[in-house]
Amino acid sequence: MLFPFFFFIIPIFSSIILLTSSVLPSAPIPSELGFSLPVTQTISSYDTHGFHGDGISCDVYDFSSTPMPAQITSWSPFPPDDTVQALLYGWTEENAQEITSIGPFLTDDNGDPLVPKITNGYYLLIDRQEETTTPLLSRPSLNFTLAVYDSDKDTLYYCKMDT
To answer: Rounded mean pLDDT of the chain?
Structure first.
C-alpha cells in the first residue's frame, strides 16, 4: 500500500527541487563591503568551500536596475594594483634572467578566472588574515575578500578565498 504513495510523491518532490534550484534568489549585499541594499538580483553563485571552510566563492550581482551605491566610488579605481591583478587574472614579469608568473587565484574548477576582464570599475580588497606583516601574495595561506564593480556592465563580483 505504501508503494503507490512513494511512486507518486518522489517524482513530484524531485521536480520541485530541480525547478527551485535552477533559479537564484535575490540576496542582500554583504555588509563588509561598506554599504547595504535590501536585495539585488543575483546573476550567479560559485562556491567550493567545504567542511573545513577552505575554498573559493564568487557571487555576481546585477545592478542594472539599481543605482550604483555612492560608497563604491571610495574603493580603488581600475586598473588594479599588482596584487589584485594577480588574484583576478594572474601577473607575469619578464626580465633578462627569468620570467616570474603568479596567479590567477580566483578561478573555477577549470582554472578560468571567475571575474571577466574589466576596463572601468572599482575594487575593494579586504585582507582577513590574522597575520598581516607579510605581503598577501607571499603567505602560505590566503584569506581575503575581493569585491569588484564593473561600471560598464553595472555588475558586482563578491569573491572570497580561504585556504
So the answer is: 78
Q: In what order do the strands lie in the sheet with 143-150?
A: 41-47, 55-62, 155-162, 143-150, 121-127, 76-77
* CB contact set of 146 (below 8 Å; sequence gap of 6+): 84, 87, 88, 106, 123, 124, 125, 126, 157, 159, 160, 161
Grid cell, residue 94, equals: 619578464
Is 144's pLDDT higher than 60?
A: yes
Residue of 108, 163, 107, 106 lying closest to 140 (CA atoms): 163
For 52-78, letters b (16+ CB in 10 Å) and e give eeeebbbbbbbbeebeebeebeebeeb
Please report which residue ranges of 22-62 form alpha helices under DSSP H. none
Report how far residue 148's alpha carbon sits from residue 64's, in angstroms, rounded to the nearest whole number: 15
Residue 34 burial (CB < 10 Å; 0-12/13-18/19+)?
A: middle
pLDDT of residue 51: 75
- The dihedrals phi and psi of 72, each to the nearest 5 degrees, come to -65, -30
**Contact present, 130 and 142 (Cβ < 8 Å):** no
Residues in the chain, total: 163
